[in-house]
Write a structure and sequence with these properties.
Order of helices and strands: HHHHHHHHHHHHHHHHHH
Structural class: mainly alpha
Strand content: under 5%
Number of strands: 0
Radius of gyration: 25 Å
Distance between the termini: 77 Å
Number of domains: 2
Number of helices: 18
Length: about 450
Amino acid sequence: MLAVLLLHHWREQRAVVSWLAQTSRQYLQMKWPLLDVPAGATLKDSRSPSPAHLSNKVPVVQHPHHVHPLTPLLTYSNDRFSPGSPPAHLSPEIDPKTGIPRPPHPSELSPYYPLSPGAVGQIPHPLGWLVPQQGQPVYSIPAGGFRHPYPALAMNASMSSLMSSRFSPHMVPPPAHGLHPSGIPHPTIVSPIVKQEPAQPSVSPGGNAKSPVTVKKEEEKKPHIKKPLNAFMLYMKEMRAKVVAECTLKESAAINQILGRRWHSLSREEQAKYYELARKERQLHSQLYPTWSARDNYGKKKKRKREKLAQQQTQDTESSLVSKSKKPCVQYLPVEKPCDSPASSHGSMLDSPATPSAALASPAAPAATHSEQAQPLSLTTKPEARAQLALHSAAFLSSKASSSSSSSGLSSPSPLLSRPIPFPSVPPTALLTSPPSFPTALPSPQAALAVLQA
DNA sequence: GGACCTTTGAAGGCG
DNA sequence: CGCCTTCAAAGGTCC
């Protein structure tokens, strides 16, 4: 009799598990349409709590994009961050003085870094960490997967044990030298040498003088430890695929503009969760790379933006009309119109605070003012348009970098209005009174497309 | 192949 | 302290 009952109970559990797997997969596909969620990879088998079993389900192939080693740890829990749920994690962590979210207590990290030792040596497949942990929906992934911001963080024993240890700071030693000294030709295993590792013998901090050539070679060998993603970057990562799906756009410049506006239309709570994620990511990054500095990456990108900016400033000062832009006139933002429509499932735009102060006063959004000021200007992305702006007002061109130009930028006649095809941006005056309300201000998508094609 | 475009935020440097 | 610069992601575009 007992055996019959147990069998029946077991069958019920199996049925529940099966149902959960199906519904979870449907949920994921609904939330992230572009997300290719293979059946069976969505829900972790409840009978096998350890993710180790995923190794059998995750194809051991190199993903085109490396997976963020931290992102899977940052379980983007809708349960936790649901707008309906009180953002209790926010208020106590916001520094009332600076308005900047304070570093969390070590214990706060536990829900966000649920990676278990089962991931040791495993490819951090997107769907691997997509499996809800502890019944939580997890952080979304873009259609193309994530790149690997921290190459040296490719899952290894020390890393995974670090994560499995709930990331208690006192248990976080510097990353062990040689993430995979075994030399396993695993695609995700990158150069194990971490720049700042104090225990790294090759660094020889003891003062073992090395020739400049050797130092230079070692410098080249050092993996590029990327900056931790900020809140907006995390938001972009999550929403990019969605925007691309909605807009059939692929150009990141346009997508980013859309995302930038959507970012501002997010409610305080919704932004707060990304700030929270970013804060945790920064903390994790700082703990993994204690000696890493953002300065280390300076110069890694051979950007000529500075030169271009300087050139542009020179042009502005000289009122030069010559456009030396390499790119043709690209109307990014008109394309946004169909995408920023209320059709967005985000819904946050409609839930935006009634007043900018409500949104901008968010302690989690310290740079909102700057962003809003920059928004009107940023709408003119074309160098030609910038040249036009230079004709109208040089102050506009520098308004993004100058916080004192807000009044002039908002009070001056919008250069956008002088453009042949005015972008349906938020009127500058609207910026003073209310957050962007794109759906009502945007013309029809057809008109936008026509404008774009014109 | 690499820089550029675009977005916001973080961080470092400088005056 | 404020301002400026750089970098983080991403993919099309251009050189």
